[in-house]
Design brief:
This protein is mainly alpha-helical. Helices cover 77% and strands 0% of the residues.
């Protein structure tokens, strides 16, 4: 973001904060979508054309944290807890199955357990590992969803910048000035 779009990251995160907060508290990319669209267009000054394409696409496909990384972490954790040695081939299988299972994950709280089941089953690991990590999963899901929604916001900015549909002058105004001009 800093190198490609030449945007101050501190200013970006101040402007993207509503998206991050809603994603963190709801744990749902779909519930965050209306807020994210508003943040992208009104606070980041990305054209509605780019925002209306990238944000819904990101809310539908950007589940790398929920459907991809989490099942892989649980699989490695399960192997360690149950003293199961994983080979190099097993790690490749973890990556492939996690990537494939993340494609069908819904943007609501909970489906990461299904993708984790797919990965554990593909490797022959005990499903009991899901019960072991269940107590901390909700807290981790909050962070994952915030990262996923922020990733969609960053992607919108990068696409808009590459397509000439990013109003840099409006973005560079101070956050306080922008909020005075556009009281939400």
């Amino acid at each position: 973001m800093l190198l490609v779009a030449k945007v101050n990251p501190v200013k970006f995160f101040k402007k993207a904060y509503p998206t991050i907060a809603v994603a963190f508290t709801t744990r749902s990319s779909y519930a965050t979508l209306p807020v994210n669209l508003e943040v992208i267009t009104k606070r980041l000054r990305v054209s509605p054309r780019v925002a209306s394409f990238v944000a819904p696409l990101g809310a539908t496909m950007n589940f790398n944290g929920c459907g991809g990384i989490w099942p892989a972490i649980v699989a490695v954790f399960a192997a360690n807890i149950f003293n199961i040695d994983l080979s190099f081939t097993d790690y490749i299988l973890i990556v492939l199955v996690s990537a494939i299972s993340s494609i069908g994950v819904a943007g609501v709280p909970g489906p990461e357990s299904i993708s984790t089941t797919v990965v554990l089953t593909a490797l022959g690991l005990p499903l009991e590992a899901i019960a072991i990590v269940a107590s901390v999963e909700a807290l981790i899901d909050m962070g994952r969803t915030a990262v996923n929604a922020t990733g969609t916001t960053v992607t919108s900015l990068l696409v808009a910048n590459s397509e000439g549909e990013f109003d840099r002058d409006a973005f560079d105004r101070d956050v306080e000035d922008e909020l005075e001009l556009n009281p939400a």
